[in-house]
Amino acid sequence: MVRGDWRKEGRTWLHPERTFFVVESEVPEIAAGGKSGLVEYHVMRGGGDDSAGFALVTFSTLEEAISEAERREEEEQRTRSS
Fold first, then answer.
1. Measured between alpha carbons, how far is 2 from 15 in angstroms, rounded to an integer?
2. Four-CA torsion 48, 21, 58, 66, nearest 10 degrees
3. 20: how many CB neighbours lie within 10 A of its CB?
4. Which pTM value belongs to this model?
5. Residue 43's closest CA among 25, 68, 19, 60?
6. pLDDT tens, position by position, 12-64
7. Contact yes or no for 25/37 (Cβ under 8 A)
8. H or E element that contains 42
């Protein structure tokens, strides 16, 4: 179960108050050892910096990816306020 205000739009999980988001993608069968339907979750950063549009880290579960997106958001907020 996804916690908080995270909502799915297409293959993307967004939170209205977060810069970081999660993109769900299917792993190509050849890279998944012949298994089809294997999904991975990429934590990405929105906004206008050099990392926007690129996966920062990838997880095998949505819960792990959302936890990491929230951790990065909190870390960025602490950095901005100091």
1. 11
2. 140
3. 22
4. 0.82
5. 68
6. 999 998 889 999 999 988 888 888 889 999 999 887 666 667 889 999 999 99
7. no
8. strand 39-45
